[in-house]
Specification:
Layout lengths: L2 E5 L5 H11 L7 H10 L1 E2 L2 E2 L2 E5 L2 E9 L24 E9 L8 H15 L4 E7 L6 H9 L2 E6 L21 E7 L6
Parallel strand pairs: 6-7
Antiparallel strand pairs: 1-4, 2-3, 4-5, 5-6, 7-9, 8-9
Helix pairs in contact: 1-2
Bound molecules: coenzyme A.
The site of coenzyme A has 19 residues, from strand 6, helix 3, strand 7 and helix 4.
Amino acid sequence: MMLSIQPFRRDDVPAVKKFTDEEIGTNYYRSEELVDFVKKSQKNGETSSFVLYQGDDVKGVRLSFPQGQWSQGKGGALMADRWPHALSETAYFQSLFIAKDFQRQGWGRQLSNQALAVLKKMGAKGVVCHSWVESPGESSLKALRSLGFVSIARHPFYWREVDYQCPRCGSPCLCTAEEMYYDLKEGEQ
Ligand SMILES: CC(C)(COP(=O)(O)OP(=O)(O)OC[C@H]1O[C@@H](n2cnc3c(N)ncnc32)[C@H](O)[C@@H]1OP(=O)(O)O)[C@@H](O)C(=O)NCCC(=O)NCCS
């Protein structure tokens, strides 16, 4: 069955919640948080988060927020003094997950490129994210590097305070985050 990429809407929340519980860990995102993410993704009539569907089933998500509509990720650590642009001009890549059977087929790249294009239209100068260093096969670091993200800082135990079941550690999560930045203005005059 064909896959399609849709902007993230309020009606998608139950199916996205089922997917994130299965793929990221039970209760990593609560339903109310996802409803809030829909709002935080919207600016000037556009949406910067996307859902990958196969029929009614979610097979991937790219959650991202424009500048001024986020303040921190799941953990608190940010090294904004090392970025090329100010926090107020920087968008946030919250999460990218693709279901196992659909990984390495270019969907993560497509979802992320759509989000980057929308964020640029919304006026963001750069995008920051926290990459999951221990993701299987280092897929998170590799996928972000291949999009053009560069490393800013490493944060051990970044998700320790988040009350959820990490697929790798259980609870608490002891994984490491790599803060990474993508300069949307690089190469422009
Ligand atoms: C990371 C993830 C979202 C990437 O999505 P994807 O659809 O599999 O990635 P794509 O097919 O678009 O690949 C884009 C590039 O990422 C890199 N990459 C992705 N997965 C990789 C892997 N397992 N090993 C090595 N490189 C990988 C490659 O450079 C790839 O380009 P290429 O295929 O032309 O070589 C997906 O693998 C995933 O959900 N992983 C587990 C969860 C995770 O780590 N999420 C990120 C949390 S911050």
